[in-house]
């Protein structure tokens, strides 16, 4: 039987069309399902780019601050990179008035996203006031804030950044020179020679200059900075844990062995070398200009702090129960001061401070943040502590010359005859201390029997390293045993209008997103 082959023409086409129809329906269904996600993906991309634009605004402002550390005091009167009228720096906008957004923004090169920056004034101010740093700086923290808003399409994101300069009170211990102050040398000839040969980094000083070491018994219980290199004998401790930065400079590696010793410093903190020099200002003028007339005194002044008030005695007058200043700043001026630091008779029982010198003798307790400045010296005559009802408050002592601990002694025929009555014995100082041109020092540290323990809870910054006692065979022979601890509150706050290093960089200490964006 012969099979008859029928024509199959067109059969495959029908099958193919059916497959294509089903496939098309599946594609259409899939597209219908994912179509909303395409819009979401675009919005998500814009959302991320808006955040990137806001971050770019923060970077823009930090760059300007790096070029001019006082950039913020110019407010919006700043030269923009793209010519007049294009600065993205604005006074604050409340988001509603005027209705139209008045802020000038700047495009990110190669993108359609933009950013705009607002200056957020300090409490009590509605706008940034040109050349008035108090309109921006929070006196309690030494910081100021900006808000950067990025836009991409219809999406906006705002970031608020808090900026603060690296300062002396970021460290428990800060020195510019790791050698004795020329004023503390024993003869006028030596003082003159030290003045010419010792005010230099270690590698440039002569062998005449005193060499001060950190020894086994030393514990630096907090962050540390020296613009100099340090000498080490044994294994002193630096820092409490890895969060404490230990910053050294000058010749590598920043520390060296004392003659006859090994150098094996125990860096409990994180070593940073070279960390960069933080230059010290030479004057307290900025602080003096902040103090109101009612809290500026002339000549040798004694201040007894009594919680929320103070008793003040000064040449020609006194004030009892005077409220602590609203802005927290007290300043004592020179009238005509010819008395410099006197190594061999400073504060002997028979001596008096020159009445026309801007010296402050201070002690007592304080319940409010306070900073005391002096044209000449600050002498702590007894305990200086926070009040029991105000454990979080901070004090600062800033002297153009010395910050001193009162230690009266007797002399007989020009020689040390021992401690005099009236000294404080063991003493506690809860404050940030800054000696701009000289040292933190104990009067007559080399004379008499051991006095006790010198406790500092705060921060110590000084131009030259100052002595607080003498040691023999690892034991205190005169003066004080040291007990220094960092007040970690100083990482986030500072005493009112505390002075910062010259040309110190600004850095972000806090950053958060504002929701909803401005």
Commentary on this structure:
With 518 residues, the protein is mostly beta strands. Helices cover 14% and strands 34% of the residues. The protein has three helices and 34 strands. Strands 6, 9, 12, 15, 16, 20, 22, 24, 28, 29, 31, 32 and 33 form a 13-stranded mixed sheet that branches.
- Return Rg in Å: 33 Å
Q: Give the biggest beta sheet.
A: 13 strands, mixed
Low-confidence segments: none
Q: Which class best fits the helix and strand makeup?
A: mainly beta
How many strands appear in the DSSP assignment? 34
Distance between the amino and carboxyl termini: 91 Å
- Total helices: the number is 3
Please give the share of residues in helix: 10-25%
Overall pLDDT score: 89
Mass-distribution shape = globular
Portion of residues in beta strands equals 25-35%
Characteristics of this structure?
13-stranded mixed beta sheet; 518 residues; single chain; 7-stranded mixed beta sheet; mainly beta
Give a short synopsis of this structure.
By secondary structure, the chain is mainly beta. It has helices spanning 11-67, 188-197, 285-288; strands at 89-90, 106-107, 114-120, 143-152, 155-165, 173-177, 213-215, 219-220, 224-226, 230-233, 237-238, 245-247, 255-257, 266-267, 270-272, 296-298, 301-307, 309-314, 317-323, 329-333, 360-366, 370-374, 378-386, 395-399, 403-405, 409-412, 415-419, 427-429, 432-435, 440-442, 450-464, 469-472, 475-486, 506-514. The protein is built from three helices and 34 strands.
Sequence-ordered SSE layout with sheet pairings:
Layout: H1 11-67, E1 89-90, E2 106-107, E3 114-120, E4 143-152, E5 155-165, E6 173-177, H2 188-197, E7 213-215, E8 219-220, E9 224-226, E10 230-233, E11 237-238, E12 245-247, E13 255-257, E14 266-267, E15 270-272, H3 285-288, E16 296-298, E17 301-307, E18 309-314, E19 317-323, E20 329-333, E21 360-366, E22 370-374, E23 378-386, E24 395-399, E25 403-405, E26 409-412, E27 415-419, E28 427-429, E29 432-435, E30 440-442, E31 450-464, E32 469-472, E33 475-486, E34 506-514
